Amino acid sequence: MEPILQVKDLTVSFNAFAGTVQAVRGISFDLNPHETLAIVGESGSGKSVSIKAVLGILPKNGRIEKGEILYKGNDLTKFKEEDFYSIRGKEISLVFQDPLSALNPIMKIGKQITEALILSGSVEKSKAKAKAIELMEAVGIPDPELRFEQYPFQFSGGMRQRIVIAIALASDPELLICDEPTTALDVTIQAKILELINDLKRKKDLSIIFITHDMGVVANMADRICVMYAGRIVEYGTAREIFYEPAHPYTWALLSAMPDLDTKEKLFAIPGAPPNMLMPPKGDAFAARNKYALQLDFEEEPPYFKLSETHYAATWLLHPDAPKVEMPEILRERIARMKEKEAKSNGRAE
Fold this sequence. Notes:
Elements: E1 5-16, E2 19-31, E3 36-40, H1 47-55, E4 62-71, E5 74-75, E6 92-95, H2 99-102, H3 109-120, H4 128-138, H5 144-147, H6 157-169, E7 175-179, H7 187-204, E8 207-212, H8 215-218, E9 224-229, E10 232-238, H9 239-244, H10 249-256, E11 305-306, E12 312-313, H11 329-349
Parallel strand pairs: 3-8, 3-9, 6-7, 7-8
Antiparallel strand pairs: 1-2, 1-4, 4-5, 9-10, 10-12, 11-12
């Protein structure tokens, strides 16, 4: 199956007063049709910058240093601003992190959706209102005819996020990018938004890139996961491989810090802070925060080691000559609990 999107060796930098910020450093990934790819990592790891590069919306001080971004075989790094008009907001749509900022506070919700429909060219002006109400129903807005005439401040946070999703779907896109769409929402509303996105994916055959810092959010969302740290993808694989067979110490740390209903001990916190990307450290960028780090980690950046046809990790711990290191006990116990629950669930299903 030919990927709908391929990112190859992408490097993105920003000019800052203090120097050059190396935000993204040679990342590669692909997205298959009708697949959900999650990009996970702490704030500042380069997740959103990567997607802004894909959409051609980097700020003026940002630039793509090298790499290719192939969408349906076309290299988007070669596109001028006007070339994006036929793709951005039409074939590729973006759901923003903060719906309150994404929506115009002094414009009625209905007008904002109909504008998106008309600008995308997906519907005639005379039919835009009916289509907007249909979209509002599709994303679960109650009384859409009444809500059509209301303003953003009259909607809850979860309802505003549904409206932003409706606007993103106005052009009937093939690729939907969700940039931390549940960050500002409480847990119960988060679950409903994630369920909505999954439902829309099935109904509309969408391909989705889902950006988040929360491993718990992607557990039931992603087909494959890229784990990013300091501008690099440090591990990638299927969702099952990342959750059940993680190999990079940073992935171990993220999973260990994720609470679940069986957590009794104090939550794990990753020590230290991410590196300053004005001066990326030599070697493995996570080494200073990694209690399993080898001397080599401070001297040379690790390559990707292959664990399966779909699973790779960039850590010297996977080198044949490296000392044998087991993942943290807290994580081993959590994985054992997950496997036990899965086995019980499969037993009930049979």
